[in-house]
Each structure stands twice: as structure tokens, then as C-alpha cells.
Write a structure and sequence with these properties.
The chain has helices spanning about 5-45, 55-70, 100-105, 115-125; strands spanning about 75-80, 90-95, 140-145, 150-155, 165-170, 175-179. The protein is an alpha+beta fold. The N and C termini lie far apart (about 95 Å). Residues about 35-45 have low confidence and may be disordered. Keywords: Membrane, Transmembrane, Transmembrane helix.
């Protein structure tokens, strides 16, 4: 008669190896998924409004101000909003990082389209973003003559010196001096 004990021990050991293999495989997948999420979070950029005809004009002004601010020059820094929406606006606001322009425009009584509500809400709700406008970004929000709010999300902002920047002006004074 043969002893089946070594066979039973062998099956038990095989079971332990199989458990270890499953745990290792799940752990490896977890690492891969975590790595993929990290890459997504650090490389994802929101869809900036670079198709807006005034996008380059606005970002150029902001880049120049950001450069002056980074060099400690806080003198007169003016953004010219004259050409914004071909002059069809009543109120315009400039936002630096860590702002939520959607709620600001709603508080001002402007009408906001469902498309703008959705895209700006999505920006603020993402786990890896602190606000609708991040430190490296800027946003121009304006209200047209029919009281509808529009938003131009810019991929270039004021940097650390423009955190929480929020200044508005009316059409009668389209050159906004930032402070």
C-alpha cells in the first residue's frame, strides 16, 4: 500500500502556490492600473478654447504679464479686452488659478448654457484638479448683450503670482488693469 500523504502535501503546496500566483497577478494589475491612472492624471489637459479667434491675443497678453510678475515687476499690467467677442459684451472677468468662474457668473445673474455648465462643472469635479481654473491656466468669462455668459479657457495662466486673481470690468472700461 502506498502512502498518499506526500501526494496530499504536494496538492496543498500547489494550492498555496496558486493562491500566491493569483495574489501576485492581481497586485501586478493593480500596479499597472495605478500607473495608468497616474499617467492620465499628470498628462490630461482639459480642452482649451484655442479655436476661439481671440485665444492667441489673450494668451499673449497673459504671458507677457506673467513674465513681468515672475521678474517682480508689478507695475501697470493691463489686459485689453476691447476686441473680446467683437465688442459684444457688457461685463468681462479675468481669472487666475484656483477659481471657479461658473459660480461667479451665475451669482452675477448671467444665463449659462447647459454645455458650459457641464464642461466647467466637469473641470471642477475631477479628483486631480482643485478648481475649474488651475494655477497654470487662466480663464476669461464674459457676459454678452443678451446676458449669456461665455468662457474662454486658456492653457497659459499667470502662474503662482496670479493665484486667486479675479478681476472684472465693464464694456465702458475694456482695458482691465490687474493688481
Amino acid at each position: 500500500m502506498t502512502d498518499s500523504k506526500p501526494f496530499a502535501i504536494g496538492l496543498k503546496a500547489l494550492g498555496e502556490v496558486a493562491k500566491f500566483a493569483v495574489v501576485a497577478l492581481l497586485g501586478a494589475w493593480g500596479i499597472v492600473l495605478a500607473f495608468a491612472a497616474l499617467i492620465y492624471a499628470t498628462t490630461w489637459n482639459p480642452p482649451y478654447d484655442d479655436s476661439n479667434p481671440k485665444y492667441r491675443f489673450l494668451t499673449q497678453q497673459i504671458e507677457e504679464i506673467a513674465e513681468r510678475w515672475s521678474n517682480g515687476d508689478y507695475g501697470r499690467n493691463i489686459i485689453d479686452l476691447t476686441l473680446l467677442n467683437d465688442g459684444n459684451w457688457t461685463t468681462a472677468c479675468v481669472y487666475g488659478g484656483y477659481n471657479n468662474p461658473l459660480s461667479e457668473m451665475i451669482a452675477r445673474g448671467a444665463t449659462v448654457s447647459s454645455a458650459n455648465r457641464a464642461r466647467l462643472s466637469e473641470l471642477g469635479d475631477m479628483d486631480f484638479r482643485l478648481s475649474q481654473v488651475e494655477e497654470s491656466e487662466a480663464m476669461i468669462a464674459f457676459v454678452d448683450k443678451s446676458n449669456e455668459a461665455h468662457f474662454i479657457h486658456l492653457g497659459y495662466g499667470f502662474g503662482p503670482n496670479g493665484q486667486h486673481l479675479k478681476q472684472c470690468t465693464s464694456r465702458t472700461n475694456p482695458s482691465l488693469e490687474l493688481s
